[in-house]
Design goal:
With about 230 residues, the chain is mainly α. It has two domains: about 10-80, Winged helix-like DNA-binding domain superfamily/Winged helix DNA-binding domain (Arc Repressor Mutant, subunit A, Orthogonal Bundle); about 90-225, Up-down Bundle (Four Helix Bundle (Hemerythrin (Met), subunit A)), CATH 1.20.120. The chain has ten helices and two strands, in the order H-H-H-E-E-H-H-H-H-H-H-H. The chain has helices spanning about 10-25, 35-45, 50-60, 90-115, 115-135, 140-150, 155-170, 175-180, 185-205, 205-225, and strands spanning about 65, 70-75. Strands 1-2 form a two-stranded antiparallel ribbon. Helix 3 packs across helix 8 (about 175-180), helix 4 (about 90-115) packs parallel to helix 9 and helix 4 packs antiparallel against helix 10 (about 205-225). The longest helix is centred in the middle third of the chain and has 22 residues, at about 90-115.
């Protein structure tokens, strides 16, 4: 028989597989609270962000319920069947780390190479974010547009393609589920202020400041999504 290609399992999927097996084997029954995130990370010998990515995947599958300030609870699954697993090419925290590397350099290059029309397009996307937020709507589409406009201002089509791929994944189910646990107007106001700092530095053609502003923005996003889920963290 022909050989089949072997794909390395993403870390968050390996962690999710272990937790899923323990649930199905009755180690954690419906209604039980899983050990705190930090304890799971220690037992598995992995980072807490990797554990969180795995728990989000299990939540999407319907096997667990995340209760902010309380913990992670096993859900009763009708007929014992959970939905198909979500298998993104990267977990949400991996994605943020990758965006930090790539988009910070995009911001610096946009500050150097961006034309007037391109800089206006960045500002217009920022204005749209402000408008959507003021209207009480989630400004995620305008947020995506803002970052893509910065990539376009680099003048490098390969970078535009990469940023678009990263944002397609960022709009996926895993990241959206993680974000939903923290989404609030104050969060978006903080993010908007960070976007303004990025746009201001690019508009001033200050490459170092633009790079640093984008790094700060994505570092803050990482911290916002890293706040503890359990009551005692």
């Amino acid at each position: 028989m022909p050989f089949q290609s072997i794909e390395p399992r993403r870390l968050y999927r390996q962690i999710a597989d272990q937790i899923r097996m323990l649930i199905r084997n009755g180690e954690f029954v419906a209604g039980a609270r899983l050990p705190p995130e930090r304890d799971l990370a220690r037992e598995l010998g992995v980072s807490r962000p990797s554990v969180r990515e795995a728990l989000i995947a299990l939540e999407v599958e319907g096997l667990v319920e995340v209760r902010i300030g309380s913990g992670i609870y096993v859900r009763a699954v009708p007929n014992g069947h959970a939905r198909d697993a979500t298998d993104a090419f990267a977990g949400p925290f991996e994605l943020l780390r990758a965006r930090r590397v790539i988009e910070s350099e995009c911001a610096a290059l946009a500050a150097k190479e961006g034309t007037r029309p391109q800089l206006r397009a960045i500002d217009m996307a920022l204005d749209e974010m402000e408008h959507e937020l003021a209207a009480g709507r989630e400004p995620l589409p305008a947020d995506r547009q803002f970052h893509l406009r910065i990539a376009e201002a680099t003048g490098n089509g390969a970078l535009v393609h990469i940023v678009r791929l990263l944002w397609d994944e960022r709009m996926g189910e895993l990241f959206k589920r993680l974000e939903d646990h923290y989404d609030s107007p104050p969060l978006w106001q903080s993010a908007l202020a960070e976007h303004r700092a990025v746009a201001k530095s690019i508009g001033a053609h200050d490459q170092d400041a633009a790079r640093a502003a984008m790094q700060r923005h994505l570092d803050q996003a990482y911290k916002r999504f890293s706040k503890g889920w359990n009551a005692r963290h």
